[in-house]
Design brief:
7-stranded mixed beta sheet; mainly beta; 4-stranded antiparallel beta sheet
Length: 120
């Protein structure tokens, strides 16, 4: 089992920045951030493996940066130039195996989520 605890969500004006953090109880090969807005499916925002390979959704490329500190088992998401459509609950997730992609089905472990609200 892996416990994941997110922090860093909040409210920000459009164009602003937020940094999310996720503390994991142990190492996992692949970790990622997903988000879900009301009425929408949960979508993969960005993922990273332990070697630093990353994958981003097109909607966040150039604005969001995912990173991890393997020594601390901590995952980060730096979000810049935030838009109204980035408003969602953001979830940290980790896989149980050695595959890494933004496919939601690979992720066995999930945090409780942290709300990000972007206003005009």
């Amino acid at each position: 089992q892996v416990q994941l605890v997110e922090s860093g969500g909040g409210s920000v004006q459009a164009g602003g920045s937020l940094r999310l953090s996720c503390a994991a109880s142990r190492y996992t090969y692949c970790m990622g951030w997903f988000r879900q807005a009301p009425g929408n499916d949960r979508e993969g925002v960005a993922v990273i493996n332990s070697n630093g390979w990353t994958s981003y959704a097109d909607s966040v490329k150039g604005r969001f940066t995912i990173s991890r500190d393997n020594a601390k088992n901590t995952l980060y998401l730096q979000m810049n130039s935030l838009k109204l459509e980035d408003t969602a609950k953001y979830y940290c997730a980790a896989t149980s195996g050695d595959v890494c992609s933004r496919y939601r089905g690979y992720f066995a472990y999930w945090g409780q989520g942290t709300q990000v609200t972007v206003s005009s």
